[in-house]
Amino acid sequence: MDEIERLELRIDELREAIERSRRWRFAGRASAVLGPALLAGLMLGIVDYTPERVIAALALAIGGMVLMGSSRSSTEELERALKQAEAERMAAIDALDLVQVGERS
Predict the structure, then answer these.
(1) How many helices and strands in the chain, by DSSP H and E?
(2) Over pLDDT 70: what percentage of the chain?
């Protein structure tokens, strides 16, 4: 496998990883919203109070914030790696010194 093919595979893997990271970030946002909403529902009496629900609401809120922040930094790191891999691919293609069809040397 030559350099360009290896870089193409790496770029595809990075794009898939970025998409997964974005899905986790969305899940973190959802949890960060659902936790406080459940707490508000408990305080307003909309949801029946149980200690388990309070613990679940706090876990959702805290876990959502952690997941959201972690996924954000992972996504940024993956995007930097993607840009670098794309730049390396372009450099490898430029190094081939290709001739356009119809061009005479």
Answers:
(1) 2, 0
(2) 96
